[in-house]
Amino acid sequence: MNRSPAPPVHGSRRPVVRVLVEAAIVALAGVLLGFVGNTLSPRGLRLTRDYFPAASTVPPATSVAPVAPVTLVTPPTAPTTTNSPTPAEVSSPLPTSPSGTAFAELEQRLQARGLRLGLHEEVETLFRDPRHESEQIIFVDARKDERFAAGHIPGAYAFDHYYPEKYLPDLLPACQTAEWVIVYCTGGHCEDSEFAAVQLRDAGVPPEKLIVYGGGIDEWSARKLPVEIGQRRSGQLLPQAP
Amino acid sequence: MNPSLPAPAATSTDTRSNRPPGLSRGRLVDFIARVLVGGGYLYLGFVKVADPVGFLKAIRQYDLVQTPVLLNLIAVLLPWIEIACGTVLLLGCLVRGASLVSLAMLLPFSTLVLRRALQLQAAGALPFCAVRFDCGCGTGEIGICHKLLENGVLTLLSLWLLFRARPIGRADPPEASR
């Protein structure tokens, strides 16, 4: 049989090399686009930043107060209102909530970071404390802006810790003057409150002031407590289901 | 996305001489594969670019790398490589190279997704297909069986484009030689 050879389909003698070169061009174009896009985007990431600081990070010494061991102690600045219980008083039995097991893991991680866990009863007590109105007790919402606007603990500061430059100028002075800073995120397995608290600690907020609310906004809402929508201090509360 | 390939428009007996140029079955399959794979990558790439932090968090769950810089680089570059890949596939240039890049992303990532799903299945004592999580694919929370099926179809289409796609603008080889 005298059959003429079929013509090469793609007209190349080295199709493998050609495919590899094409692939390299596509990948290189993506890499270049990635660097340019990340630089130009307001939501771009900082390549050298550690967005998830490890639990083994040693809490740095601050100029405000030494890092205390993670025990339920009274903060350096003593409460001024005599009738309101200190967080230490209300949080003594730790953790006793139904999801205590999950909180036990969280508590361990927080202890490794020089921080401590706050359970719902303590957090609600602090919310109702008159010092909350005078910003001696502040809440910090560590979720992204869209979630914050959709509903947050009334009066809470927004702090998307992935973009700290945007929030810290307003937030840090408030944290420095406050007696207690309660940081929360969604709750459950959300870690943003931990990372936000670590950032605040690293920015100079004494760790003794910092409480991470483990239940987060999910537990807060589930207990039908007031939820503010829109901007901070908007005064608009989310209607509660009957 | 319905990945099933279209049935041939006509039987082989009546189309060899009558098929209009540019509408051969092979070219139609090429076109559909390029649109599905390329369009999919473009969409999913832009979803990730719009929320880089969400993608960063999603890929962190796979414990791919321990170095923050590497993790950040993956989160920054991978969506744009998807966009580049999707763009050239839709344009019809560098098709086989883009298909290779597609496979280089799909195969390791599908393995990681499967491994993560097995971990979640074991942790929650769930049936495999009941496992749902945000795999970082740009589709939000999704069932694992759905995701693996989707990735399987994309892999098959990418393989087709890599080995069978015909260059655009070049005449089909004679039927007899195929």
Please write out the topology:
The complex is a heterodimer of chains A (242) and B (178).
Chain A: H1 15-40, H2 87-90, H3 100-112, E1 116-118, H4 120-128, H5 130-133, E2 137-141, H6 145-150, E3 157-158, H7 164-177, E4 180-184, H8 192-202, E5 210-213, H9 216-222
Parallel strand pairs in A: 1-5, 2-3, 2-4, 4-5
Chain B: H1 12-15, H2 25-50, H3 52-60, H4 68-91, H5 95-124, E1 132-134, E2 141-143, H6 144-163
Antiparallel strand pairs in B: 1-2
Helix pairs in contact in B: 2-4, 2-6, 3-4, 4-5, 5-6
The share of residues in extended strands of chain B comes to: under 5%
**What is the distance, rounded to the nearest whole angstrom, between the alpha carbons of the first and last residues of chain A?**
87 Å
User: What low-confidence regions of chain B span 5 or more consecutive residues with pLDDT below 50?
Assistant: 1-17
Largest sheet features of chain A = 5 strands, parallel
**Largest interface summary:** A-B, 38 and 37 residues
Average pLDDT for all residues of chain A: 79
What's the oligomerization state? heterodimer
Provide the structure class of chain A.
alpha/beta
> How many individual helices of chain A?
9
Could you characterize what this model shows?
The complex is a heterodimer of chains A (242) and B (178). By secondary structure, chain A is an alpha/beta fold. Chain A is built from 9 helices and 5 strands; from the N terminus they run αααβααβαβαβαβα. Chain A has a 5-stranded parallel beta sheet. With 178 residues, chain B is mainly alpha-helical. Chain B is 63% helix and 3% strand. Chain B has 6 helices and 2 strands. Chain B is globular and about 55 Å long. The N terminus of chain B is likely disordered. The chains are: A alpha/beta (242), B mainly alpha (178). At the A-B interface, helix 1 of A face helix 3, helix 4 and helix 5 of B.
